[in-house]
Every structure is written in C-alpha cells, then in structure tokens.
UniProtKB/TrEMBL annotation:
HAMAP family: UPF0235. InterPro entries: DUF167, YggU-like_sf. This is UPF0235 protein BJP25_10470. Belongs to the UPF0235 family.
Length: 99
C-alpha cells in the first residue's frame, strides 16, 4: 500500500505550489478554481509533480468536495516520507509540469 496524508487546499491561488503546513496538513495551493472538479485535478497534478510520480498514482481518498482532503500515492515512491516531511516543514515544490 502507498502513502496517505492530509492536505489543505487553497483554490484560486496566484500560483500553484506545494509546501507548508496547517493543522498538520500539507498545504497545496492551486490556481484552478473550485468549480467542476478543476481544483481537484490541479491538486492531483501538483502533488504528483512534488513527489515525482504520475498524476494517475495520486488519488483523493477523502474530502472530494472539501478544502481538507486525504490523498494517497500508490505505489509509494522511494523517499516519499522524506519528501512529505520536507514539504510540511515549508519546503516549496512550486509549479506543475501538467502530468
């Protein structure tokens, strides 16, 4: 089984970025609006880019219609837990490659 973690989404942000924490959840800012699933797709792309995986490997397992979500990356990429810790500590993985 892969790695699961909580995220807090900021839709409609100026730029897409992954990094920082709020109440223990990873902050994911996306430029896409929270309309018709656009923000969720942008979240999947941003998380995939931050962890160096394919977008299809990132699944929103809870909170589909909420800013607070749980995502899973399966299969777990090598070093995923270290990347998560770095991002939670404020390391920024800005931008998205559109995977």
């Amino acid at each position: 089984m892969g790695v699961r973690f909580a995220i807090r989404v900021r839709p409609g942000a100026r730029r897409t970025a992954v990094g920082g924490a709020r109440a223990g959840a990873l902050l994911v800012s996306v430029a896409a609006p929270a309309v018709e699933g656009k923000a969720n797709e942008a979240v999947r792309a941003a998380v995939a880019d931050a962890f160096g995986v394919r977008r299809r490997d990132v699944v929103i397992t809870a909170g589909e219609r909420s800013r607070d979500k749980v995502v899973a990356i399966d299969p777990e990429p090598p070093g995923a837990r270290a990347v998560l810790e770095r991002l939670l500590a404020g390391g920024d993985a800005g931008g998205s490659s559109g995977r």
